[in-house]
């Protein structure tokens, strides 16, 4: 049996569940540890239920056995004498790691952020990620429906701007999705489409509205900042984003999936050249992506 350690927000959870589907398609028994990471005070909500997804969960006993974590006296003495015999396996890098698919008895830890893990079962993954159980509060329901209508009726382009936690970890995420990046991406969409309408998705809507005002003055285009959602209801943003017809994504698994879930063969996706400051991330990109660097140059 393999165990996948679930972690992160809905974007990471979707990559991990897609890996689960791939492993199951290979005939492997797989369960999730959805407790260890989510016992922490700052844990993000688990949101896979929005797709109507249920998954097998590892028992405490199975996890202890897999990680050699028993706390009885003899187990502790044995570990001191002979070392720990844990089945824990961390993906070799942020890129595709083929060994992950070869494991038979492992506690798999990582984000697994590459379409390469599940490209050959793409149809099954798309079927799994249908928004079957979306809950929209009454006080924002009319507003969300209006966003959806405008997105459906226009040449809609999603723009994702990730702030909040990304500002706190600027050494990892900062300086990648710059104003120059977004400005070039927006101009690229304006050249590609006759009358694009831009919809901004962000975890800081107050800041984004000010940002949009500057773009509107410079470009003569109106921008719609999606409001009313929060950390607990981010799946609404994801659903709306996936209905747009083109996408300017951030270095974030959230907007990666927002763009990927749009299954139109005519879609256009713009992505930043770098994904992280700490390492190269080659396999996060899909072949159809247009890549722009922090200086606003198409690479």
Which descriptor suits the 3D outline?
globular
Average pLDDT, rounded to a whole number, is 92
Rounded to the nearest angstrom, the distance between the terminal CA atoms is 43 Å
> For the record, what CATH class of the largest domain applies?
Alpha Beta
User: Which strand order do you get reading across the main beta sheet?
Assistant: 7-6-5-8-9-10
- What is the CATH-assigned architecture of the largest domain? 3-Layer(aba) Sandwich
- Helical segment tally? 11
How many discrete structural domains? 2
Strand content: 5-15%
Radius of gyration: 21 Å
CATH topology of the largest domain: Rossmann fold
| Helix/strand order, N-terminal first | EHEHHEEHHEHHHEHEHEHEE
| Stretches with pLDDT under 50, minimum 5 residues | none
How would you characterize the largest beta sheet? 6 strands, parallel
Query: What is the structural class?
Result: alpha/beta
Number of strands: 10
Fraction of helical residues: 25-40%
Describe the secondary-structure layout.
Elements: E1 2-5, H1 10-25, E2 30-33, H2 60-67, H3 73-82, E3 88-90, E4 106-109, H4 122-128, H5 138-153, E5 155-161, H6 165-168, H7 170-173, H8 179-192, E6 196-202, H9 205-219, E7 223-225, H10 234-242, E8 246-248, H11 253-260, E9 268-272, E10 290-292
Parallel strand pairs: 1-2, 1-4, 3-4, 5-6, 5-8, 6-7, 8-9, 9-10
Helix pairs in contact: 1-11, 10-11
Provide a quick synopsis of the model.
The protein has 299 residues and is α/β, with parallel strands linked by helices. The chain has helices at 10-25, 60-67, 73-82, 122-128, 138-153, 165-168, 170-173, 179-192, 205-219, 234-242, 253-260; strands spanning 2-5, 30-33, 88-90, 106-109, 155-161, 196-202, 223-225, 246-248, 268-272, 290-292. The chain is globular, with a radius of gyration of 21 Å.
